């Protein structure tokens, strides 16, 4: 048996506990790890995440009038005003790199919790590593439903997973049908890692259960050099709604390939990811006008919650653009973690874990459309209500649920 597999014996646990306590005593700071892609094709995700976390740290570490957890105090009040510091690690979209970086952050940097990781495949290995070391993992933005079904005790996900998001998509289509819109078929298009395959499994079942024909069901290789054959299949099937689950480079390639083959989908309802990222929207946003995506947040949330408007302005001052679905979830995850650490009054990961399990934050004390933050026995926040947003005039607007919509829906996107 390898040494790292038995590291959490009594002696090792005591050593780590001493490191956490000493770090707090010496620096009056709480050290949290964040594992994201900082290089490679998904590097922009990591850059954006850092700006989201820095925005959260501005609120956590400085007193403000915002009606958000920990905002009223400078630092964590129950830890003597200790400041939170985030240490970053680059997983390079590689699950095994994520695993090793998690071990390094825990054993060398002494982090008391880890936030991550965008790619569901990386969150799988990182959360398993955190479980082995008894350190909380707060899943900010990985949306594979299977992540919260592994009987882990140190796993917590603040935002919705793809089952919840996909249910909102089909609720939306059902509501349109009730209003007289003709929607008979869907096209599933998904990349071959855990994100895409889990997403397709959920959507396939929902389509069948709710009476939608699956016009095409296409799995493709992540970071594929060509999608010509796949797009030709979609074009031939011509579904009423195309439902892609793709990361950024694939979303760009898909959109450009559809344009080059002269195919305009009637409607796109995307599983966020690459379709809401700045590089994709900068590159092909003009070809995606009217595209709908599931989301946890839209910039126009500020019309519903004042804190959302203020936080978006803070983020925009750093990043030069509005928050999006990913950055809002990253911001919210760190805010929830900080509130739990403050309530625990400790940097002991097990006490932080217990505080996370007892979390109950009203939705109005977040920037999200959620009704609250409260975790079930699997570590999933089941109150993370999704919304659907539509890309129009260079920005996203909320179009569903209809009672919280801020703009009129354009349907179909390509009339």
Describe the SSE topology.
Layout: H1 10-27, E1 29-36, H2 43-61, E2 83-90, H3 95-107, E3 114-116, H4 120-133, E4 137-139, E5 155-157, H5 162-178, E6 185-191, H6 194-209, E7 213-220, H7 228-237, E8 241-245, H8 248-260, E9 269-270, H9 278-284, E10 292-295, H10 306-319, H11 325-344, H12 349-357, E11 361-362, E12 372-373, E13 387-392, E14 395-400
Parallel strand pairs: 1-2, 1-3, 3-4, 4-5, 6-7, 6-8, 9-10
Antiparallel strand pairs: 10-13, 11-12, 13-14
Helix pairs in contact: 2-10, 2-11, 3-4, 5-6, 8-9, 11-12
Description:
The chain is α/β, with parallel strands linked by helices and 415 residues long. The chain folds into 2 domains: 3-160 and 303-384, Rossmann fold (3-Layer(aba) Sandwich), CATH 3.40.50; 163-295 and 388-404, Rossmann fold (3-Layer(aba) Sandwich), CATH 3.40.50.2300. Helix content is 41%, strand content 16%. It is built from 12 helices and 14 strands. The protein has helices at 10-27, 43-61, 95-107, 120-133, 162-178, 194-209, 228-237, 248-260, 278-284, 306-319, 325-344, 349-357; strands at residues 29-36, 83-90, 114-116, 137-139, 155-157, 185-191, 213-220, 241-245, 269-270, 292-295, 361-362, 372-373, 387-392, 395-400. Strands 2-1-3-4-5 form a 5-stranded parallel sheet, with helices on both faces. Strands 9-10-13-14 form a 4-stranded mixed sheet, with helices on one face. The protein has a 3-stranded parallel sheet with strand order 7-6-8, with helices on both faces. Helix 2 crosses helix 10 (306-319), helix 2 (43-61) packs across helix 11 and helix 5 runs parallel beside helix 6. The longest helix has 20 residues, at 325-344. It is globular and about 65 Å long. The chain starts with 9 loop residues before the first helix and ends in a 15-residue tail after the last strand. Residues 1-15 have low confidence and may be disordered.
